[in-house]
Amino acid sequence: MANATLVSPEREAWSTKLKDVGFWAEWAALVGLVVLVVVFQALNPTFLSPGNIASMLVAAAILIILSVGQTFVIATAGIDLSVASTMTLGAAAFGQAYAAGWGLLVSCLLGVVAAALVGVVNGVIIARGRITDFIVTLGTLSAASGLALILADGKPVTIIDPALLSLSTGGIGIFGWSFLIAVAVAVIAHVVLFHTRFGTHVLATGGAPESATAMGISTQRVKIAVYTISGTLAGLSAILLIARIGAAEPASNTSFLLNSVAAVVLGGVSLFGGRGTIIGPFIGALLLVALVNGLTLLGVSQFYQPLAVGIVVVLAALLTRFQK
C-alpha cells in the first residue's frame, strides 16, 4: 500500500502530461520522427537497413548545420532567408579558388569567409540600419545568388580531391564524417547557447529586447554576431555540399532555405525569439530527411515530397500555439 501511495502521484502527473497538448507540442519533432520510422519500416523493411541509415545521416548533415545557424538567428526573433544563397556563394568562391590552383585549404577558407561576409552584411544592415530582417535577407538572397552566378560565369566547377572524397564517403560505422561534423557543430552550438554569457544575451535579445538593452546588453552586436554565425555555418555547409556532389554549383537550391526554417519550427524554437534548443532543430532536420527518404523508398513521386514537407511544417507551426 505504501508503494502504491508513492507511485500514484507520479502516474497521475504523467497522465496529466500525456493529456496536455503542450507536452506533445514540445516533443513534436521527436514524436514525429518515431512515428515516421515505425510507419516507413513497416511499409519497407529496407528503411532501417544500415546502408539506408548511413545515407540518411549523411544527407541530413548539411541541413543540420544550416538549421543550427538559423536557430541562432530565430532565437533573436529574426530570420535568415539568404542562407541557401549564401551557401551557394561560398561554394562558388571555393570552386573558383580551387580551379585557380590555390589548394584545398585556401579554397575552404575562401568559401567560409565569403559566406561569413554575407552574414556580416546582413547583421550590420539589420542591426545598424534598423531594417526588417525579412526584407534585408530577401535582398541578400537575390544578391548572393547573382554574385555566385557572376563569379562562376554560370558554370559549375568539377572538384575531384581525395580529401573531399574521403569526407563524403568515409566515417565510423554508419556515421559518415559529414554527419559527425554536424554533430560536433550542434554540440558546440548547444554549449555556446546555454553555457556562455553570449548565449544568454542571444536569448535575452529575442525574448525581451528592451529589458536586454536596459541591462546593458548590446542587442545590435548580438544581431550582427548571430547573422555572422549563420553565414559562417552556411560556408561550412558549402564545403560538405561540394564534397557530396563533387562540384561547385553556382545555382542556388532554395529547398535548403525552406527545410532549414522547417527544421527549426519542428524543433520547437519560438519564431518570436527568446526560446529554443539545438537538439530540437537537430531532430527536426532528421525528421525531414527521413520523410523524403521514406517517400522515395515507397516510390512516391518526387512531386509529392515538397507537398508532404509543407504539410508537416504547417502542422508543426500549429502545434507551437500550444507550447508553454
Q: Can you put this structure into words, describing what you see?
A:
This protein is mainly alpha-helical. The chain has one domain: Orthogonal Bundle (ABC transporter involved in vitamin B12 uptake, BtuC), CATH 1.10.3470. Helices cover 76% and strands 2% of the residues. It contains 15 helices and 4 strands. The chain has helices at 2-19, 21-26, 28-43, 50-75, 83-99, 104-129, 133-152, 162-169, 177-195, 197-207, 209-214, 219-245, 255-266, 279-297, 305-319, and strands at 157-158, 171-172, 175-176, 247-248. Strands 1-4 form a two-stranded antiparallel ribbon. The chain has a two-stranded antiparallel ribbon with strand order 2-3. A hairpin with a 2-residue loop joins β2 (171-172) and β3 (175-176). α5 packs across α12 (219-245) and α8 (162-169) packs across α12. The longest helix is centred in the last third of the chain and has 27 residues, at 219-245. The chain starts with a helix and ends in a 5-residue tail after the last helix. The model has no long low-confidence stretch (mean pLDDT 89).
